[in-house]
Amino acid sequence: MQEALFYQRTSDNKVVCGLCNHRCRIASGKRGICGVRENQDGRLVSLVYGRLVSENIDPIEKKPMFHFLPGSRSLSIATVGCNFQCRHCQNYQISQYPHLHQGRITGVTRTPASVVEEAVRSGCASISYTYVEPTIFYEFAYDCARLARQRAIRNVFVSNGYMTAEVIRHLAPVLDGINIDLKSFSGGFYQTVCKARLEPVLDSIRLFHELGVLVEVTTLVIPGLNDSEEELRAIARFLRSVSVFLPWHVSGFFPTYKMLDRPSTPPATLRKAREIGLAEGLRFVYEGNVHGSGGEDTFCPGCATLLIRRSGFDSEMVALDKGRCQKCGISIAGVW
Q1: Which bin fits 41, alpha (ψ -120 to 50), beta or left (φ > 0)?
Q2: Are 120 and 148 in contact (CB under 8 A)?
Q3: Model confidence over 21-45: pLDDT tens digits?
Q4: Whole-angstrom distance, CA of residue 50 vs CA of residue 245
Q5: Which helix (DSSP H) or strand (DSSP E) does residue 181 occupy?
Q6: pTM here?
Q7: DSSP 3-state helix, strand, coil percentages of the chain (rounded to 5)?
Q8: Domains of the chain, earliest start first
């Protein structure tokens, strides 16, 4: 068992976990909402340190990260567990595994060194901590990230953005990029669909950006729940308040897990969402989970030149050189 970071003991042998904004108060012998951090007689431990259930080599575009080393590969890892309980989770078999299997923890044992060595061996430019909320296996992710930096391997989180500010400040020095799901702009949506709150996610987007981490944001557009023009415009305005250069991915929903009563997102809805984002002043808005629309390409915000052409998870550099438009020369926000 690995002792957890970010917790405090209380006088009644409980612990208060400070990893995410649930700030669970956990009695001895019990676990937090994530199902993978347990109070063992006043000592909070991670039950998933090095217990990987998923190890894959993915194109970085799959995260999705469009302004982060386009065309590169990323070693993607995950444990079981999650601090959200989204009704539409596409990876619920692993994110909700402890809850679905009477608290059982599963996974293949790995060390941070073995993960980094695999990234180097397989020619990956980065390690992505993904598939479930990576904050719940923070201790292992952080140890991997520190070693990766020593080997010139970048680090990426794909996250719900619910970590506390103290965790963000601890993580930022070893994190190169993060894609944060902004699932809705409604507190009610977060409460009923995810069992969480909206405001901490907004705070995380702001803070990561302020600390110099490349932030991209994804909104899964669900028919009848968060696809109104009013809500999409509110999201775009918030992102614009952080930075007009912050990439926004508006992605298509497919029925899954406990949300089988909704249809898939029509391509026209994603096109409308992209148009709203651009109209509100965002420079980079991308359509996700739909290919061939042209909504995945990157255009120069200065002269409208096509910079990167994308098809699915393939990227073709057209007129971008060392982060600058080859036609007008302006710098494009990203890690290139």
Answers
A1: left
A2: no
A3: 999 999 999 999 999 999 999 999 9
A4: 36
A5: strand 177-181
A6: 0.97
A7: 30, 25, 45
A8: 2-45 (no CATH), 51-296 (3.20.20.70)
